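4.2 Preliminary Data

To establish feasibility before requesting continued support, the project team ran the inverse folding procedure on a target of 159 residues. The structure was first converted into the token representation described in Section 3, and no sequence information of any kind was made available to the design step. The complete token record follows.
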């Protein structure tokens, strides 16, 4: 499973209070399961709840939520794009220690696909494909950036 390590590294890089005190962030996987169907390959999906626990966190929770949401937008976008998922997607609890510190627990449901294939010699391969990225809805497929990205132009696609 790659997402917990990816998210931890992202938060360490983006949250100043964690850079100097990496032990304040603990990461756990709860309620994990493997989803595999009787398809032609044994490809599967990991599904689990990721628990992030920040201990004695001296910053405002906003400084964690913003980079967390930025990561989710790339790596588990349906938690933001799907209203049903967004209602329950990211959950948190906080214990206010004093006016300058909080213990913050954040949980989010994650999935990771694992694709089984074969190399040229017929040996099994295991890949973890990236999440599909949403296309920007406001871009018309007939629009392209101009030369060196300094302008724009419209073209008529071949019919």
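Position-by-position output of the design step:
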């Amino acid at each position: 499973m790659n997402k917990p390590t990816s998210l931890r590294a992202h938060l360490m890089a983006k949250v100043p209070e964690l850079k100097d005190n990496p032990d304040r962030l603990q990461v756990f996987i709860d309620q994990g399961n493997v989803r595999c169907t009787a398809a032609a390959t044994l490809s599967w999906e990991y599904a689990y709840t990721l628990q992030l626990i920040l201990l004695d966190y001296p910053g405002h929770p906003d400084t964690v939520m913003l980079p967390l949401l930025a990561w989710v937008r790339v790596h588990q976008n349906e938690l933001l794009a799907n209203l049903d998922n967004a209602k329950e997607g990211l959950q948190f609890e906080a214990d206010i220690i004093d006016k300058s510190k909080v213990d913050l627990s954040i949980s989010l449901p994650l999935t990771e696909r694992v694709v089984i294939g074969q190399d040229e010699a017929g040996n099994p391969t295991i890949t973890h494909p990236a999440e599909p990225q949403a296309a920007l809805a406001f871009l018309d497929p007939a629009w392209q950036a101009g030369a060196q990205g300094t302008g724009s132009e419209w073209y008529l696609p071949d019919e």
